[in-house]
């Protein structure tokens, strides 16, 4: 795999035959998550398709010309022509494969697929999710000499890795960058001996059989499973949101705020995440307009006070987004005044959305007892309604969701499992 610059784009891409190009950035957890998938597929498809990488931060003009608005972004070319769909953000291995298959003859695709051999591996415990709860469980289990595998569709760290600063984690006097705190947690668990299978696609989860399938070909079996899949950002479901995700609409300030230096952005939301991330974005952007549906923020008072004192930030209370449209290089956000029902249009260079989270339980939500909000119910040992299936962290039903509460959950589940397996 080769890394190129703008000067090599014409020769390597436009005159390069069949090409897939990865625009990546530093300090970008989604970029780190897609990298091993990209490299693994280069091994399979590399004889037929050229796999190239380009550092977005040093090649911004080219990125803007090609419509690349977030990292990572994969572009596909066939004899100088861009083909297929642009892939951005949390990119699945299966989505990349679909695009690659579309630019090759069916016969050749079948030959490549025939090289993939199914495999089976067995462990004492599978931890599904590598946020603070999953990492802590992995640490305690490996220290108890229990054969454990940690599986995640991204790199370890969970939401902590995309949080720019953590100021309330015990043991650190100074605020810690989120990516560094999650990196240290991950390294501690990895060095202890927990096996990592991360940046993979989880194809199937069978809780009754206690096995999962990753990347469509590897089956992992265990005696017990810990679900630590966390939560994902809520979507508004309004016109233009899906189409412009990664093309002007972002859900990760750590990943994309640095690309809005001296530019104007809109931030949607009014909770802790929206308020804290808006303050972070203001380190780069020249102006921020916040849109919140209520007449006051729900974030903690300290964060609000800091926000209100920030001269770069303007707030529209009791407004709600109705649509997103891209016009040239600008994003047009149409919002409705909930009192007067009047609509206005906000013009900006980008939009960040922080409107809460939902539990990641799609693959097994019908198998477990849930609360009224869709979170998994557990007992005091973190055991779910199914035997040998535990759950920890933000995905479970509880009053408070913090890094420290996730760490506590992981500790409890691991000790309970260690005793049960003894």
Walkthrough of the structure:
The chain has 422 residues and is of the alpha/beta class. The protein has three domains: 2-113, Glutaredoxin (3-Layer(aba) Sandwich); 119-232 and 358-421, FAD/NAD(P)-binding domain, CATH 3.50.50; 241-355, FAD/NAD(P)-binding domain (3-Layer(bba) Sandwich). Helix content is 28%, strand content 28%. The protein is built from twelve helices and 24 strands. It has helices at residues 9-14, 29-45, 60-65, 93-102, 106-113, 132-143, 178-192, 241-244, 253-256, 272-281, 301-308, 403-421; strands at residues 2-4, 18-24, 50-55, 73-78, 81-88, 119-122, 125-128, 148-152, 195-198, 202-206, 211-214, 218-221, 224-227, 231-233, 249-250, 264-268, 287-292, 313-317, 319-327, 330-337, 343-348, 350-353, 357-359, 389-391. Strands 1-3-2-4-5 form a five-stranded mixed beta sheet. Strand 8, helix 7 and strand 9 form a beta-alpha-beta unit. Helix 2 crosses helix 4, helix 6 runs parallel beside helix 7 (178-192) and helix 10 (272-281) packs parallel to helix 11 (301-308). The termini are far apart. The relative contact order is 0.13. The model has no long low-confidence stretch (mean pLDDT 93).
In short:
This protein has 422 residues and is α/β, with parallel strands linked by helices.
Termini Cα gap: 47 Å
The CATH architecture term of the largest domain is 3-Layer(bba) Sandwich
What is the helix tally? 12
Number of strands: 24
Proportion of residues in helical segments: 25-40%
Proportion of β residues? 25-35%
Which structural class is indicated by helix and strand composition?
Answer: alpha/beta
CATH topology of the largest domain: FAD/NAD(P)-binding domain
Report the top-level CATH class of the largest domain.
Answer: Alpha Beta
